Structure to design on (670 residues):
């Protein structure tokens, strides 16, 4: 079977200089408690509220006016320590209050101390600085880099790596090839540490998952294992800067598994300048990333097409490489980790808006709806904008593309709910709950034949039309099917009437076994006529006709005739041979029948040399042989005589074969 090997989606470029870009970003790790004062809020009353009324409300809610911003009519109010947020909500709930809000704390912006930040033009284009004003991510968010490995000693990466694993034949999990280390730096290098570069994912952690050898190649099986391991071990984002033109159900299944676990999967779209599918980026649950240049144009070598989801900077990207150094590289391989780092940031600002227990769908939606339209086709939603993705609410969510089908399944006779009924629109299937209710979600707009079925009921169908964002109703009243009948009886021996246990009884579609009393029953038999056949080992089979009526049990007893036992086959001793092994004398007997050697025959042999007597017994092996040994046999004439030969299913034929044999042993040797 041909194995597909994945190549890196990157072109390495060495560049000595780049235009200087100055960045302003927030300081590291602002404490959550400093976002607003713990005991101070700002309150504005509605214009018709008098000062006495305002004072009464302050007394009721436990606030004390500290000062007033007269020109805009806002009062600064002191509240019990630690209750600022709760009090702001309480004031806001009062009909006399226009608004109330925490007294937020602003911070001066600074510039990270990473000395090569000026070379990271891509961070300016995607508005990373503005995004960092919203969130810097969290060390609890993990970006798994599935690649050639990360340099474990690189000062801009080492402290970010929280786990390592190697699925390749490479002898080390360490990054020997530059590729994985370069990708990791773009996604989440240490920021504001006085060393090297800044990672777009800022505070996010890294998982080093080696799925490509040190020469940059790797099997799909390694990648699939890496995806599943990352998903099972805490990854929030998986970056796949790799791929091939070969489709794989295994690889797609791994991607779908990770998505179902709540992981965002980012993949490079490939560097062939083509619209042809590139895997795994082509798969639905991957964010496929094309590459743009410093002029916000699609790179000529970047893949593009209606399967590509977004674009990100991928030309002359400066990042970490092995041996504690840095350099420029180009390719969709270096575009993808910009999206992976952004996904890590967005995880910290989204909530589960659709109640499915995961955040990856909200993260992906934020990234795609927040893209900038740069007037280039074939790059999906556009080029990523980290600020818009982080800000979220400033961009309207995309209109719904699917609807739902819901309803209730009941008994047509008494109207009672039918739990566990199966309802399908032909592509999606659900079961009803104890109240008979069901909902089929994610149904594309269109017309569908919806079918409901349940055990013991007739099946019903109806056509419904589904509109995007709407729920179509399809209720079903199922008619009960007539109760099935049965076939029962007893299986006995025709000679003595004794019960036959373990007999097989079948009506051609259903089968039952008789119990120790010979009794059997075949249930759920539809109304009709059947040929009932009973059989048992050692008996001839018997067939009878049975007519089954709905709700009734038809009786069919069978008396089976025992088959005659087969005549025993003759056996005899074909040969008695002697042989020496050192000073030991070995006697070998072969027992045969007309069919060949007889295994399991019991053989008794008497042996004498005129001075001593030996009696041996044993069982023949598969070829029909059994051997006996006289240790340190003295010289003499030995006579071996067959005392008895027997085997189950055989009878000894004394008219043929040998009965005894003689052997002369001289001087203790042959």
């Amino acid at each position: 079977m041909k194995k597909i090997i994945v190549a890196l989606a990157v072109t390495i470029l060495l560049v000595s200089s780049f235009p200087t870009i100055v960045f302003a970003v927030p300081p590291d790790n602002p404490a959550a408690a400093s976002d607003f004062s713990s005991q101070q809020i700002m309150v504005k009353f509605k214009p018709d509220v008098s000062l006495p009324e305002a004072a009464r409300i302050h007394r009721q809610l436990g606030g004390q006016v500290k000062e007033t911003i007269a020109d805009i009519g806002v009062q600064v109010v002191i509240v019990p320590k630690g209750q600022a947020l709760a009090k702001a909500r309480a004031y806001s709930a009062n009909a006399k209050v226009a608004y109330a809000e925490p007294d937020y704390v602003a911070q001066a912006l600074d510039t990270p101390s990473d000395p090569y930040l000026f070379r990271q033009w891509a961070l300016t284009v995607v508005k990373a600085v503005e995004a960092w004003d919203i969130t810097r991510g969290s060390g609890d968010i993990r970006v798994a880099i599935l690649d050639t490995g990360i340099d474990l000693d690189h000062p801009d990466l080492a402290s970010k790596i929280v786990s390592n694993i190697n699925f390749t034949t490479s002898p080390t999990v360490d990054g020997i090839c530059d590729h994985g280390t370069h990708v990791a730096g773009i996604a989440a290098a240490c920021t504001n540490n006085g060393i090297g570069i800044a990672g777009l994912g800022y505070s996010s952690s890294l998982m080093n998952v080696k799925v490509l050898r040190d020469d940059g190649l790797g099997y799909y099986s390694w990648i699939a294992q890496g995806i599943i391991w990352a998903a099972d071990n805490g990854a929030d984002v998986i970056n796949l800067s790799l791929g091939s033109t070969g489709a794989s159900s295994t690889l797609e299944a791994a991607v779908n598994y990770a998505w179902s676990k709540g992981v965002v999967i980012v993949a490079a779209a490939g560097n062939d300048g083509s619209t042809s599918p590139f895997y795994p980026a082509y798969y639905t649950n991957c964010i496929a990333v094309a590459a743009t240049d410093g002029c916000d144009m699609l790179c000529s070598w970047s893949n593009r097409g209606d399967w590509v989801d977004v674009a990100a900077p991928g030309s002359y990207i400066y990042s970490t490489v092995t041996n504690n150094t840095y350099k420029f590289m180009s390719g969709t391989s270096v575009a993808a980790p910009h999206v992976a780092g952004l996904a890590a940031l967005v995880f910290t600002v989204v909530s589960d808006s659709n109640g499915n227990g995961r955040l990856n769908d909200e993260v992906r939606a934020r990234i795609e709806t927040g893209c900038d339209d740069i007037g280039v086709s074939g790059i999906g939603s556009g080029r990523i904008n980290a600020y818009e993705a982080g800000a979220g609410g400033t961009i309207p969510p995309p209109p719904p593309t699917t609807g739902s089908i819901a309803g209730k399944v009941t008994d047509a006779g008494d109207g009672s709910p039918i739990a566990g009924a199966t309802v399908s629109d032909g592509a999606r299937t659900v079961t009803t709950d104890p109240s008979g209710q069901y909902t089929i979600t994610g149904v594309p707009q269109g017309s569908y034949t919806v079918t409901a079925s349940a055990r013991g009921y007739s099946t019903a169908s109806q056509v419904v039309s589904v509109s995007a964002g709407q729920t179509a109703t399809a209720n079903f009243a199922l008619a009960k099917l007539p109760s099935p009948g049965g076939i029962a009886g007893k299986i006995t021996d025709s000679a003595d009437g004794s019960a036959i246990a373990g007999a097989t009884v079948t009506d051609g579609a259903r089968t039952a076994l008789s119990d120790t009393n010979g009794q059997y029953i075949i249930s759920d038999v539809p109304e009709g006529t059947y040929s009932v056949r009973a059989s048992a080992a050692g008996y001839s089979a018997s067939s009878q006709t049975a007519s089954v009526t709905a709700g009734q049990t038809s009786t069919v007893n069978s008396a089976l005739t025992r088959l005659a036992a087969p005549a025993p086959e003759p056996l005899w001793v074909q040969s008695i041979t002697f042989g020496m092994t050192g000073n030991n004398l070995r006697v070998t007997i072969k027992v045969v029948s007309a069919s060949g050697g007889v295994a399991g025959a019991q053989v008794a042999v008497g042996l004498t040399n005129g001075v001593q007597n030996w009696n041996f017994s044993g069982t023949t092996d598969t070829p029909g042989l059994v051997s006996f040994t006289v240790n340190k046999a003295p010289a003499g004439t030995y006579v071996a005589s067959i005392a008895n030969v027997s085997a189950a299913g055989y009878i000894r034929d004394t008219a043929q074969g040998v009965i005894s044999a003689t052997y002369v042993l001289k001087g203790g040797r042959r």
